[in-house]
Write a structure and sequence with these properties.
This protein has about 260 residues and is α/β, with parallel strands linked by helices. It contains 9 helices and 9 strands. α1 links the parallel β1 and β2. The longest helix has 19 residues. The structure holds 2-(1,3-oxazol-5-yl)aniline. The site of 2-(1,3-oxazol-5-yl)aniline (J9Q) has 12 residues, from β5.
């Protein structure tokens, strides 16, 4: 896969690609990453990338010219047209399904907007997709781009080592994880659940599945509706709902649970 990133702050992308799984993916040639400074596509003496908005108002808007020219330059090299993703609060909300979708593409281009946004014509006539990573205000599209790239890269065959992908297999699809413990058995008086020490693997598996369902129902009930549950899981959900387990809760303001 080829990944291009257009940003005003290329150094922000140094760290993720210099360590761990990303670095190994690049070193092994599984992914080719190029980070381009949008400012390199200005033609004026002062390399101006933004301007005041037509119609007035506060803040600055990214000019279309440099962004268009940067993407057009990228398009001259590949054979197929790339998928051009604009990171913006107005985009469709990123999720695992979209990560899957992106992981099938040969070439992704990420446009990281900044300031109060970019000229609308970037969205209309250059981007082929618009992505938001959630409803909070950020200073730019760089961190969202890194989030998307992280989730996409780990889906590319060979990017995760056998140990990491084996770990991934054990994760319940679309549901929250079961609680995990490691040594010591008693940490400051807080004990590991007895069942995990029992050596009864069938009971442990059942307990973990139950924890997955309970937790998801309590914390993220909307995920239960989307998940593909088996008969036993569905029975448990029904039992938990009718048996009034804990009410859905907001996450931990206080300690203890
Ligand atoms: C570019 N807040 O926020 C959430 N997903 C993307 C964004 C974002 C932002 C500002 C600029 C992207």
């Amino acid at each position: 896969m080829k990944i291009d990133v257009l940003t005003l702050f290329p150094p922000m992308f140094e760290a993720p690609f210099s360590f761990g799984i990303f670095k190994r993916a690049v070193d092994n040639g599984l992914v080719e990453v190029k980070v381009t400074n949008i400012r390199d596509y200005t033609h004026d003496k002062h390399h101006v990338v933004d301007d005041s908005p037509y119609g007035g108002g506060a803040g600055m808007v990214l000019k279309p010219g440099p962004i268009f020219e940067a993407v057009e330059d990228i398009k001259t090299v590949g054979d197929e047209p790339p998928h051009v993703i604009l990171l913006t609060p107005q985009g469709r909300l990123f999720n695992q399904q979209i990560a899957q979708e992106f992981s099938q593409k040969k070439h992704l281009v990420f446009i990281c907007g900044h300031y109060e946004g970019e000229d609308e014509r970037v969205r209309e006539h250059l981007a082929t997709d618009e992505i938001s990573i959630g409803d909070y205000v950020l200073t730019g599209g760089e961190l969202p781009a890194m989030v998307v790239i992280d989730s996409v890269l780990r889906l590319i065959p060979g990017v995760l080592g056998s140990e990491e992908s084996a770990l991934d297999d054990s994760h319940a699809g679309g549901l929250l994880e079961y609680p995990q413990y490691t040594r010591p058995e008693d940490f400051r008086g807080w004990k590991v659940p007895e069942i995990l020490l029992s050596g009864d693997h069938a009971r442990i598996a059942r307990w973990r599945r139950e924890q997955i369902i309970k937790r998801t129902l309590e914390r993220r009930p909307e995920l239960i509706n989307k998940a593909n549950l088996g008969l036993e899981d569905k029975k448990l959900v029904a039992r938990l709902i009718s048996g009034k387990s804990k009410a859905p809760h907001a996450h931990k303001a206080s300690a203890g649970e």
